[in-house]
Amino acid sequence: MVEIGEGDIVWTTQGEAVELSEGVELVNAEGELVTFAGEPVEVNQLSVTFEFPQLTWEDGEPVKAADFELLYRIDCDPESGAISLTFCESIESVDFTSDTAYTINYLPGVQWPEYFVQTLGLYSNLYSIGAYPSHQVLSDESAAQVGLPAGSTLADVPASEWSTLPEVAERPLSYGPYRLVEWQKGQRIVYEANPFYYAGEPTVKTVIIEFFDDTNQAVAQLLTGNVDVLGTETLGAGPELETVLQAGDAGDLQVFPLTSPTWEHMDMNLFIR
Fold first, then answer.
1. For the domain with range 51-173, which CATH number is right: 1.10.10, 3.40.50, 3.90.76, 3.40.30?
2. Which residues does 265 contact at the CB level (< 8 Å), separation at least 6?
């Protein structure tokens, strides 16, 4: 709980960061909707500390605080081309305390119900930021492309040039269970187990994602065993689906029906109207 007054940067009921002045609506510490009239107001301020195991990039280099900080700097820069900076704008500061921990301090009034997934490191969704390998050395071609000298690293790249680099868009380093080893655009992506994954190598050592222009072709590959798994995003709901269901009834395939590929849900946020 903190006390705020005129001129402080706060998070309003409209879901935006503003300088507090008369007429601004916000939610006080009691959960009540109030309109600022000049007198100090007590509001809740969310602060979350995240602790992780020691993560390691696929090249054997440990993930460092500088890697979390780099991605926070890049992805929260308007020059990065990000579609929305709402999450970034709700942050007052981030304390990168070690290579395995950091604290996100949100603006007074921010009460994200999904704060537990709004991490800077380990998870990936709407509210996450992640980590970039600040130590990764650019190829001479990439360095020249963004006007940097040979031997420069990702940490030297401006946000405006970030997404243009092959090291980011085509050959990213991984600290997850798999690492990208081959990408034939429009055809296939090959992943192999990351020997440096913090939880140990996964049982399945290779994952190959195939791309098909035609659903019939994808189903044919499934029926012949050339493809192990076909998802609903490819299968659709046409006659090809009936073919797969019939193959399942005959025992040729394992079929797992889903009621819908759409996640239907209702979100209620008491802090934004």
1. 3.90.76
2. none
Instruction: Please give the mean pLDDT across all residues of the chain.
Output: 88
Query: What percent of the chain shows pLDDT beyond 70?
Result: 92
pLDDT tens-place string over residues 104-153: 999 999 988 777 665 544 444 333 457 899 999 999 999 999 999 999 99
Residues found in the chain: 273
Higher per-residue confidence, 152 vs 236: 152
- The label of the residue with tokens 């305390």 reads 97
pLDDT value at position 118? Answer: 55
Q: Where are the domains of the chain?
A: 2-43, 51-173
